[in-house]
Amino acid sequence: MLCRWDVKAYDIGLLLAALDYFLDLMGFDFRFEKCRFGRPARLYVKALVLKEVCKASLRYAESLSQTHLGVRIPKSTLHYWEVRHGDVVWEVLKVLLRLLSTIDYDYSVVDSTKFTDWLKNLHELFIDVRVRGGETLFPVHAQLTSSEVEFVKGIPEGRGIMLGDGAFNAKPVLNTIASKGYIPKVKKGSRSPSGYGARIRDRVYDEALYAYRSVGEGIFGALIVEFGDRLKTRREESTKTRTHLRIIIYCLKILVRWTYE
Prior knowledge:
The protein is an alpha/beta fold. The protein has helices at residues 12-25, 28-31, 41-53, 58-69, 75-84, 86-100, 148-153, 171-179, 196-204, 207-210, 213-216, 218-227, 236-259; strands at 107-116, 122-132, 136-144, 161-164, 183-186.
């Protein structure tokens, strides 16, 4: 888990430098060079990340962009980007998660949590998080959805144990987890579903090993401690974009910590 007392993870300059390095690595400018955004798309992505890092409002984010990026970006432009160009932020997050999925790990945990927006609407965030060394948690897939079946379709292929609570105890979910190369250790219900995924789970299920699922749940605690459990958004598009930005920031902090250990 990311150490809250590790000051490097809160250095804005280091985080923006890590973001720049990653955008170069994914060929961001080449991907979006033909898109007409006024200014380079990289600048807007950095401004949105900066806003979430500083937990700032759209109005205050104007001065932040001037201070840290050397360009004043109006709050109306940032709001427009949150609503209309969340797909660009999502592309950045997908590539970042794909990069993290290549890192060695001990086991995986799939879980979800619910949070509210400004209008108190509930949104469910699913995360496939991998555990390394018993304390470092890094996500490799994240999705806002209400369906476990839809979520597990997007998890990357892997190996080893994947832990999950009773919500994942369904035939299509267990089959998909097994087909991705994992050994499902999902909480048993009163009735066991059919399918080869359930048969694998039943053969290897161990209550002592299942207890390690609580370690993976720590990623939600880290996000809530850092950003709170409520988003000050009214539109679904803004909610998705800000959620993706917060996961990007979490991943960048992990990369910064690993780079400067």
